[in-house]
């Protein structure tokens, strides 16, 4: 069997974010998180609910197993029964996310997706982030616009819970006393110094920065032969 790729380590890191969640709606955004959520459902998180993104609950192979009308979807979103993994054009040390615009609000230099559902997601259910290209342009000192709400802005939000950030370099949580971002794991072949150099703010470090675990042979078979036989994951994460 060929060597495990960086993309496959990222799939595992994303899948692990749904471990022990129980019966919640998994909402992955992006190729790597989607493969990760489906892998988690097939292995260590069998109670996860997966959606087609519209109105149905589906199994990892796309078989319809339930109906999820919009009103019920909102109940899950606003009641903490959903774990979303969103993308981010910018993230700061507090976990504030920007997917709307780059530059000053009065005259931005770039228009992005828009705020969309980020405030509702972050204030009402557990949220993680996926960043396929870790750089100083993404991990910034201060986001240009707050879309997803960070730990410094969420006082009184009952279900606000920033879990982790997974990038193509490593895994981060918010386990410091002031709930700012810290590095907890690097992917194989990545150094702590590389992560520091690719981050605009000073990162906190876990007492022991570990290495992302490799997929088991069974997980690797599922990734390569069942979930992503076309290797679309390699287009999102190189190497």
From TrEMBL:
Top-level division of the source organism's lineage: Bacteria
Gene3D superfamilies on file: Glutaconate Coenzyme A-transferase
Family: Belongs to the 3-oxoacid CoA-transferase subunit B family.
PANTHER family according to UniProt: ACETATE COA-TRANSFERASE YDIF, CHOLESTEROL RING-CLEAVING HYDROLASE IPDB SUBUNIT
Protein name as it appears in the record: CoA-transferase
Organism in which the protein naturally occurs: Streptomyces nigra
């Amino acid at each position: 069997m060929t060597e495990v790729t960086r993309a496959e380590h990222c799939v595992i890191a994303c899948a692990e974010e749904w471990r022990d969640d129980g019966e919640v709606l998994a909402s992955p955004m992006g190729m790597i998180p989607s493969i990760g959520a489906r892998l988690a459902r097939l292995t260590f998180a069998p109670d996860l609910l997966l959606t087609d993104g519209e109105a149905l609950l589906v199994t990892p192979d796309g078989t319809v197993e339930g109906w999820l009308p919009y009103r019920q979807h909102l109940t899950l979103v606003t009641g903490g029964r959903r774990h979303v993994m969103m993308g981010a054009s910018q993230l700061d040390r507090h976990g504030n996310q920007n997917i709307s615009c780059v530059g000053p609000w009065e005259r931005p230099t770039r228009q992005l997706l828009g705020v969309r559902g980020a405030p509702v997601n972050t204030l009402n259910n557990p949220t993680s982030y996926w960043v396929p290209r870790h750089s100083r342009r993404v991990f910034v000192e201060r986001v240009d616009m707050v879309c997803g709400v960070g730990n410094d802005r969420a006082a009184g939000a009952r279900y606000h819970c920033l879990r982790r950030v997974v990038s193509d370099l490593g895994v981060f949580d918010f386990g410091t006393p002031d709930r700012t971002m810290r590095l907890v794991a690097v992917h194989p072949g990545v150094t702590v110094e590389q992560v520091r150099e690719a981050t605009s703010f000073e990162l906190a470090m876990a007492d022991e920065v570990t290495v992302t675990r490799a997929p088991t042979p069974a997980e690797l078979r599922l990734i390569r032969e069942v979930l992503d036989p076309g290797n679309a994951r390699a287009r999102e994460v190189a190497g």
